[in-house]
Amino acid sequence: MNTKLLLFLLFVLFLFPACAKKNTAPAETELATEKQTQTKKVLVFTKTLGWRHKSIETGVATIKDFGKTHNFVVEHTEDSTHFSTAFLPQYDAIVFLSTTGNVLDDDAQKKFEKYIQGGGSYLGIHAAADTEYDWPWYGKLVGGYFESHPNDPNIRKATIIKTTNKHRSTSHFETSFSRDDEWYNYKEINPEITALLNLDETSYEGGTNGKKHPIAWYHLYDGGKAFYTGGGHTKESYNEVGFRKHLEEAMLWCLE
Q1: What keywords tag this UniProt record (predicted)?
Q2: How much is the average pLDDT of 194-210?
């Protein structure tokens, strides 16, 4: 073999691996980018202009735990400017965790409506129903507004009845069970909701909704989906196995 041919073969051997590496790099980058885009993202909103629940921080930590377990990103804010076209489209679900009062201005409200109309998901927890009384669209989204709750004490044990409507968030519960929480009475309940859990008003004092007293429900609304649970007033709620599982499965339903 002459010297020129040998040099040519050596050049080819060194050139081809280098080209192969260059050709596979973009593919690897595309796969990494695709994997990143598959990660779900949740915004937990906790702005309050009324009563401030001491359990909010515990609730945020709980949802972050769910994110670690199920591989979705959780961001927490009390900044209503996140309700804009620059932020909202990146989230797969928006959680209103014990928000109170009129927390969004007119522009933010319109942006949030468009988010839901575009197929977005909403999860309301406890005082999310004590929010935005002057915004009828929101009232229908959450499924009902807070009207009152028992006092002295406001935390009391009640029996909860599981409805026959099947849902992943309530499948672990017995047909009836008891727990302690602050039990809301509701007004302007959206007739389109699907009740999952009802309070048995004969088991405690202070209920005003009668035989049909929903305390957790879901529905499809204006192009999107919404879930609400009335539990979660206390810090202890988020350490209860049953309630924690209920909230976790509700969050996963919103991300389906």
Answers
A1: Signal
A2: 98
Domains and CATH numbers, the chain: 39-254 (3.40.50.880)
CA dist 87 → 70, 75, 80, 110, 224 (Å): 22, 11, 11, 14, 17
* Beta bridge partners of residue 148, listed in sequence order: 185
The verdict on pTM exceeding 0.70 is: yes
Helices (H), the chain: 3-37, 56-70, 106-117, 136-142, 241-254
Contact between 162 and 132 (Cβ < 8 Å):
no
Angstrom distance (rounded) from CA 1 to CA 189: 90
Sign of CA dihedral 102, 212, 221, 71: positive
Please name the residues in contact with 186: beta carbons below 8 A apart, sequence gap of 6 or more: 129, 144, 145, 146, 147, 209, 213, 214
Dist CA 2 CA 21 (whole Å): 30
Helices (H) and strands (E) in the chain, counts: 5, 11
Burial class from Cβ neighbours inside 10 Å (0-12, 13-18, 19+) for residue 133 reads middle
Q: What CA dihedral angle connects 64, 88, 169 and 237, to 10 degrees?
A: 40
